[in-house]
């Protein structure tokens, strides 16, 4: 699927046929055919638009036949001359892309079907592809799975990685900044911050890498697909070299103190990583066990969830009509659940209620607390250390009380 944002603008440049008779009103609506220009994926095309018009601009349902080598036809719902609503793009190679447009951008679930009948499905957020890419054969069987990182499939990024000696990263970092590298080693430390997780790993030669993983759900296309780790795990990491530096804290998270090592270290923004001993997550055959979901929170993100448990804690946000539920499913095993309630919601669960959650996995939730809270009155604010417990997160569609 395209790696670029979808930006569409259409403008009338002349009449190619008489406007067909329509019932005029104060908005001057009609049906007709006009010659129009269209900017699609940053490329401009001209073509013939046929459909509903308002003051000479596309408004309502219509289709434009495009003279171009990439796109041949765009059909959909138009508003004020732009695509807004259901849309189908037909490409010159015979493939078809279908989904919703919001303000000229793909938004929501988009399907691209190829000439041989195979297709893939992914989600867009304001024109940017995010999260999983699901690949299907012509019979509708799921055959492969991938994830987007900055609008590029991760498998494609990983295929571009080349082995680089550690000394090269240290002494000639400018040659590698912004390039994909890989590192294999044992986790020496794990630091959780508000948005990121930072791990330090030591390779077989005793060399240290500082690795930054975005482990809160993000919509800028830079969501790290990383497992959760503990000290002692052997991991394989793929990511972009940001720089090499000495650290007293972790770059953009000054609240996370860092003084375990001295000297210049490579700093990597992780795109993909996994526990070598546990193995990579297999999205074609997920187990749905708590242990597997907790280990692979963004592997499961977007998959259907159905979980039974006991309400350990619940907090209501009456302004947003949302409830946050901490659901206990085993010994020290918890899910955090977001649930939007409304007038049709009969009963909200209470603490210790047994309930069933139905919805979708959404990554992780970080439960924040302050280290040494009993001593908080004895220290300056700058000395406060925030800590986080990490749990799998579910967006619930239904909350059912088990009676």
UniProtKB/TrEMBL annotation:
Residues 1-21 form the signal peptide. The keyword Acetylation does not apply. PROSITE patterns: PROKAR_LIPOPROTEIN. Pfam families: MORN. Keywords: Repeat, Signal. This is MORN repeat-containing protein.
């Amino acid at each position: 699927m395209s790696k670029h944002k979808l930006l569409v603008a259409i403008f009338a440049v002349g009449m190619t046929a008489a406007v067909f008779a329509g019932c005029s009103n104060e908005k001057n609506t009609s049906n007709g055919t006009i010659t129009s220009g269209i900017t699609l994926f940053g490329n401009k095309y001209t073509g013939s638009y046929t459909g509903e018009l308002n003051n000479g601009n596309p408004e309502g349902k219509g289709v434009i036949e495009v003279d171009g080598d990439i796109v041949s036809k765009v059909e959909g719902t138009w508003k004020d001359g732009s695509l807004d609503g259901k849309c189908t793009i037909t490409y010159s190679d015979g493939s078809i892309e279908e989904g919703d447009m919001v303000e000229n951008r793909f938004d929501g679930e988009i399907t691209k079907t190829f000439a041989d009948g195979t297709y893939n499905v992914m989600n867009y957020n304001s024109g940017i592809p995010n999260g999983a890419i699901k690949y299907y054969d012509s019979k509708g069987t799921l055959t492969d799975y991938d994830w987007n990182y900055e609008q590029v499939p991760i498998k494609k990024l990983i295929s571009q990685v080349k082995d680089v000696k550690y000394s090269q990263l240290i002494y000639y970092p400018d040659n590698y900044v912004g390039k994909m590298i890989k590192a294999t080693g044992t986790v020496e430390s794990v630091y959780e911050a508000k948005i990121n997780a930072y791990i330090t790993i030591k390779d077989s030669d005793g060399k240290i890498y500082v690795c930054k993983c975005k482990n809160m759900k993000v919509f800028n296309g830079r969501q790290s697909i990383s497992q959760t780790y503990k000290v002692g795990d052997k991991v394989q990491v793929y990511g972009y070299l940001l720089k090499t530096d000495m650290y007293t804290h972790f770059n953009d998270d000054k609240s996370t103190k860092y003084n375990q090592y001295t000297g210049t270290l490579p700093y990597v923004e992780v795109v993909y990583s996994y526990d070598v001993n546990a193995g990579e997550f297999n999205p074609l055959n997920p187990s749905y066990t708590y242990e597997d979901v907790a280990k692979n929170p963004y592997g499961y993100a977007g998959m259907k969830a159905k979980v039974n448990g006991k309400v350990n804690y619940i907090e209501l946000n009456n302004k947003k009509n949302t409830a946050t539920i901490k659901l206990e499913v085993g010994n020290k095993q918890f899910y955090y659940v977001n649930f939007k309630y409304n007038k049709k919601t009969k009963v909200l669960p209470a603490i210790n209620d047994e309930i069933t959650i139905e919805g979708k996995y959404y990554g992780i939730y970080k439960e924040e607390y302050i280290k040494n809270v009993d001593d908080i009155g004895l220290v300056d604010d700058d000395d406060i250390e925030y800590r986080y417990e990490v749990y799998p997160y579910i967006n619930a569609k239904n909350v059912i009380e088990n009676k």
